[in-house]
């Protein structure tokens, strides 16, 4: 019997959108169809002004095992040896990872089980990561002759250079507590608690001004890629833009008046 359930599920809980990878039998591997489904879900959520934070979770015992190697192997019989399909897959995967980073809303990953190769890349691309005890992160491509070069892009921006290179060169599984020490993970919670903990964290984020969250995430990512002087110039421009927003006026007024702010999200 064919499984016609969506590859990615969406559930809105207040101002938080929960996106769930839904290929548990395939360990939520990122087939081209799964990547397309995740891209569509992100595009939809990104344009939804009612959503102020996003959580990415997964059904089953794995967050994501990375690219679908069975799908990749099947295309080696293509006339071009799979070159066109491989290029399409890498381009689509790179695009969806960038969409996570550029999404207007902050994104929290809830990781139970393994997050390997492109699955680790997805977690590293998120703004925050909550991992369960027993979760593991690795980029094991080197073990099968396929260096995790594209996952390395996200890793290099999430952890120190030498930590990223150790993961890429050795391909060893990094337990959640070690990932926390490295800075790949923000919080480690008991097994089975990653999703509720991530949702609780997301709800706390979503209680803030939507305009401040959007500007803040955009400004942080812009300045992080710039030299020091340019970073301060960019951050200063974003601060001015933020100060002119109605919510900044409300928030400062509420602070000075010793009252709770009433966000207009504009």
UniProtKB/TrEMBL annotation:
GO biological process: fatty acid metabolic process
Transmembrane segments: none
GO molecular function term, any single one: hydro-lyase activity
Alphabetically ordered keywords of this record: Fatty acid metabolism, Lipid metabolism, Lyase, Transit peptide
Database matches in Pfam families: ECH_1
Keyword Repeat: no
Superkingdom assignment: Bacteria
Family: Belongs to the enoyl-CoA hydratase/isomerase family.
Protein name: Enoyl-CoA hydratase domain-containing protein 3, mitochondrial
């Amino acid at each position: 019997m064919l499984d016609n359930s969506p590859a990615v599920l969406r559930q809105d809980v207040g101002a938080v959108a929960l996106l769930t990878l839904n290929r548990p039998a395939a360990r939520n591997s990122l087939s081209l169809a799964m990547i397309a489904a995740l891209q569509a879900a992100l595009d939809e959520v990104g344009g939804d002004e009612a959503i102020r934070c996003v959580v990415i979770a997964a059904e089953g015992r794995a967050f994501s095992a990375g690219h679908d190697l069975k799908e990749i192997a099947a295309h080696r019989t293509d006339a071009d040896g799979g070159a066109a399909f491989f290029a399409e897959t890498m381009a689509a995967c790179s695009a969806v990872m960038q969409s996570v980073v550029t999404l207007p809303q902050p994104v929290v990953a809830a990781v139970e089980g393994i997050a390997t190769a492109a699955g680790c890349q997805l977690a590293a691309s998120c703004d925050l990561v909550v991992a369960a005890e027993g979760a593991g992160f690795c980029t094991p491509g080197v073990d099968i002759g396929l260096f995790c070069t594209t996952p390395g892009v996200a890793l290099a921006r999430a952890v120190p250079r030498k930590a990223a290179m150790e993961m890429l060169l050795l391909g060893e599984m990094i337990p959640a507590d070690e990932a926390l020490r490295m800075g790949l993970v923000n919080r480690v919670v008991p097994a089975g608690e990653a999703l509720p903990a991530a949702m609780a964290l997301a709800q706390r984020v979503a209680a803030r001004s939507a305009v401040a969250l959007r500007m803040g995430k955009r400004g942080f990512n812009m300045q992080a890629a710039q030299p020091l002087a340019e970073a301060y110039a960019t951050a200063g421009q974003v601060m001015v833009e933020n100060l002119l927003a109605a919510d900044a006026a409300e928030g400062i007024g509420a602070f000075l008046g010793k009252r709770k702010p009433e966000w207009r999200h504009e």
